[in-house]
Amino acid sequence: MKKTEFNIFEILSKDDKELSHSSMIKFLLEEKQFFASKLINQEGPNLDVHLEYKLDKKLRVDLLIFNGNKIIVIENKFKCLPQIGQLNSYSEKLAEKFPNKEIIKYLLYFEKGNNFNIPEDWNKITYLDIYHLTKEYLNLDNLSADKDVLIRHYSNSIKEYIDKYEGLKDPKSNILRNIFLNPHQNNNRFWLHLIFHELAALFDKNNFPTWIGSGSSYKPLINIHNPKWNFYSSKGYEFVIQLNGRNLKYYSHLKGLVNKQEIVNGEKERLIENGFTKPKSGKFKGKISNSSNTSYIYQEDVIEVIESEGKTVTLDNLKNSIENLIKRIESCG
């Protein structure tokens, strides 16, 4: 990300860390009631704001605020998009832990324009909301010099992130290409991880379960589960589509099986014998290590595939390339 001026949050390397943002938001909520009233509609002199509040041994919420008989929760999703199951778990545990309290829940993420589902009892606030409030506050209040610098630098930092995020999702832009080509530069892994959550939201809407993590090279990856392939699980293995960095794969999970090579070879032969088409970058897997619990069956370079069609690397074109691979696999039934 190109920086236009000196920024405290850049120097501290904290501007892409959720905990740092949660800490800053805690500070803002405690600052003269302005942010509490504007952001979460809470008034009163005795807001009790807690960071990383433990609900039990496994669950903790990013911010929890006690305000009289009210419990206000803010779940901060700076590095990813929310999972419905996680939010429902929070709701159940909050109701159990605070049975006689009014519980108000907020999800904080980049922008409201995202078309993904969250439970109806969760409200949405965004980093764009926080940015606008910081600008308003800086213009309204006569702050001490150190607070002015801190809030102004934070405001500038999140604005740069918002602008970059909007640019990555712009269907007329090709800047997402550089994120895939250089995953270990700057904050590109952070952006790639976030874009994979965007892909997950798109596939989840079509009832394709997804899972996001990191590969062996620490590049973000997404597994996309085709519901039509579920029957393989009864045989002790499963096939998924995986995007690991720029490598788009027909992938197999083979943990605990002794006939791994046989399973992969069988799928290779089925595809080849039924006219599976592959681009220039496409290749099938050779020999599998005996110690491996997973293996690709086939892979191709998603950037090469998109650009060979004369298209730019956008979120929609990534989704289309994944769907095209699924169709090619299914046509070899």
Measured between the Cα atoms of the first and last residue, the distance is 45 Å
Helix amount, in percent?
40-55%
Q: Which strand order do you get reading across the main beta sheet?
A: 6-7-8-9-11-10
Strand-residue proportion: 15-25%
Q: Quick one: how many beta strands? A: 11
Low-pLDDT runs of 5+ residues are none
Assign the structural class, choosing from mainly alpha, mainly beta, alpha/beta, alpha+beta, or little secondary structure: alpha+beta
Average pLDDT figure: 88
Oligomer: single chain
Report the principal-axis shape.
elongated
Largest sheet: 6 strands, antiparallel
What Rg, in angstroms, do the CA atoms define? 23 Å
Distinct helical segment count: 11
The H/E string reads HHHEEEHEEHHHHEEEEHEEHH
Question: What features would you describe in this structure?
Answer:
By secondary structure, the chain is α+β, with helices and mostly antiparallel strands. The chain is 41% helix and 21% strand. It is built from 11 helices and 11 strands. It has helices at residues 8-11, 18-29, 34-39, 84-97, 127-140, 145-169, 176-181, 188-205, 260-273, 302-308, 315-330; strands at residues 48-54, 60-67, 70-76, 102-109, 122-126, 210-214, 220-224, 238-244, 247-253, 283-284, 294-301. The protein has a 6-stranded antiparallel β-sheet. The protein has a 5-stranded mixed β-sheet with strand order 1-2-3-4-5, sandwiched between helices. The mean pLDDT is 88.
